[in-house]
Amino acid sequence: MAEMNIPDSNDHKVKVRVKRVPLRVDLTPMVDLAFLLITFFMLTTTLLKQKAMELNEPDTHGPPAPVSECQVLNLITDSLGHMYYWEGLECRSVNSISLTGDQPLKNKIKQKKNYLRSNCLYTSGKPKSLICLIKLMPGSQYEYMVKLLDEVVADSVPIYAIQGYSDEEVKAVNIAQQKIAMK
Questions:
Q1: Please, what is the Cα angle at 147 between 94 and 56, to 5 degrees?
Q2: CA distances from 14 to 6, 19, 20 (A)
Q3: Torsions phi, psi of 33, nearest 5?
Q4: Do residues 65 and 90 lie in contact, with contact meaning Cβ atoms separated by under 8 Å?
């Protein structure tokens, strides 16, 4: 059992100093464990997969497919972030449009699809597909192109392309910008 030493009252009180040894903790095993856990979780987790929009290049092997004036919806954005549209192959004038608000692009695409179903048909009676041409003016930001592409894809437009702009389109957009500035 345990033994207890009780000093006699006759003994002199002697102070005994105990030499204290500093406590040393070895952290090597803990660091090893931390690196093993980090390695384990890095190898077993699945990273977020990148989502990219698929852009197909046109087929240049055969003759170009004929395009009707009624199929085409042109979308153009300027350096200020304003978006415009016009219908058809030639640009005579542009109309302002936005992604949200009073006249969103979604409504315009829906109207154009309805128009194609009833008025723009092949000889077989099947409606022609909507074609959206996206154009960026000089100084336009990449962000605007992505927003337009997202909206076109979200509205299930079957054929869309990114094209360069013409001088007539630049003139029409400049006229529209002047009209907006006058308001």
A1: 95
A2: 14, 16, 18
A3: -65, -40
A4: no
Q: What is the CA radius of gyration of the chain?
A: 37
Taking the CA atoms of 174, 177, 179 and 182 in sequence, report the sign of the dihedral they define: negative
DSSP-derived 3-state class of residue 58:
coil
Confidence class of residue 40 from pLDDT cuts 50, 70 and 90?
very high
How many CA atoms within 13 Å lie on the side-chain side of 106?
A: 9
Give ∠ CA 95-80-104 in degrees, rounded to 5.
40
Q: Phi/psi of residue 117, each to 5°?
A: -65, -35
Distance in angstroms (rounded) separating the CA atoms of residues 131 and 26? 70
CA distances from 83 to 65, 101, 103, 157 (A): 28, 13, 11, 18
Domain extent listing, the chain: 69-182
Q: Is the pLDDT of residue 109 over 60?
A: yes
Q: What does the pLDDT read at residue 37?
A: 95
Residues counted in the chain: 183
Hey, what amino acid is at 1?
Answer: M
Burial of 86 (0-12, 13-18, 19+ CB in 10 A): buried
pLDDT at res. 89:
85
